[in-house]
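lol ok so funny story. i was supposed to be doing the assay writeup but got distracted and ended up predicting the structure for this chain instead. priorities right. anyway since i did it might as well share w the group, maybe its usefull for someone
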Amino acid sequence: MAVDYDLVIIGSSWAGIYAAKNACQLQARVALVTQTEELYLPNTLLLNQSLAELGRFNDQQQNSFWLATENIINLDDPEAFNWIQGIKTDVQNLNSLAYLSALGVDVIVGCGEFYRLPRLGFKVGKRDLRSRNYLLATGTICGSIFERDLDPKNYLTPKDLQTKQLVNLPHKLLIIGSEPTALELAQALVRLGKQVTLICERSRILPQEDLDISSLIQAQLEAEGIKIFINTKVSQIKVIDNQKWVQAGNRALSADQIIVVNHRQPNVAGLNLAGVKVKYNSQKVLVNQKLQTTNSRIYACGDLIGGYNLANITRYEINLILKNTLFLNRYKTNYHTVPWAIYTQPNLVRVGLNESQAKRQYFEDFLVVKQYFKLIDQAQILDRTTGLCKFIIKQNGELLGCSIVGDRAIELVGIPTLMIQHKIKLDRNPMRGITSLSLPTIYPSMAEILTQVSHDFYQQKIQRNHRLLNRLKTWFSRRKK
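and the output, tada:
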């Protein structure tokens, strides 16, 4: 089959650009269709991180005794918006379409659609792009929160915040959403001086995590002044005398502005996916374990296929897709060994199984080991004592999962990830383990919590081994004579 490209990537999202750059560096023939007239698709992750950094600065100013508290950043200040826009520009320059073109990527600005007669292809204007495989990297958009359409003027979406709407945000805000980006946005805005209410439809925030983990994050958000209503569904929005009212469960809540973060829908309008037999619904594009859609030559990744909008998960998916499309089509997803993070403060990171997942898979054949940051000296020095580290470990020392809530937790997950990926075990003999440094770290440092958790694992094994305990007691009793 004569084709022009090895891979055609549809969507100039950061994921699409990452895929194009890596595929081109592998010497593949690649085309990137922007699928937008604005050159770049919105990057809400970048916006959230920029707002979080501004919020972190304010938090340090207000809670550190050695810093002045007069220099508080306010979103009403145009300089804050200009700083965020500057970051956006800098990142786009580092990953520009011009740079892709220089690498050899055929960058095509415009919107196109699939066709399948006489063969599968993608048409953009007057150009017909034929490729061995195609990758959908258009991401998602926030859809209507009701079955019937609602006037979009009554609420904002994360995309709207990338415009001057961010500077003009009023004081009293209501955020509808339960996914990580909603939590990150709520915390950033409250730290920037806004009054924030968060409405979550689910029974608790982060329901896929263990209760002690999600409760710790919720407690931190509420301690910073965010009102959280869980298990609450929004049924309608009304505007009365320029005030917006939300019917949330049996409550009527008022706000100056509403931001909808949940209810993401695949950004696939105009692609003619039905015409090439790609199945999708209002929540995601359907894919198999190889990330192929129901058309085996078309792949998809990121939040487009459901789940959280997490950058490193998407990057993992893209790398797997490149192996399947450019080399041998035999690689399947295994998210068990991929770490991911939620950028609240403190961070939440996890790799592998949580406690409830381990119970379903291994019943009781594992130990749960916890250590709290308040017991770590470096956390006391930095006054960042909120958080915990939890290991799920089999009796033989194999690490099944690690969850960390804490300041700079994103910097700590590397060691547990390598242990899970390469099946590096802690010493199954607790006497050897407790008299050595199984996970050597620098003192003082936040990473010391990993050493402490491994130490607690050996302590638990000793306490459960009554024969060993008796031997130790006998040994030390004899030494006294």
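Residues 346-467 form a domain with the Enolase-like; domain 1 fold (CATH 3.30.390.30). The mean pLDDT is 90.
back to the writeup now i swear
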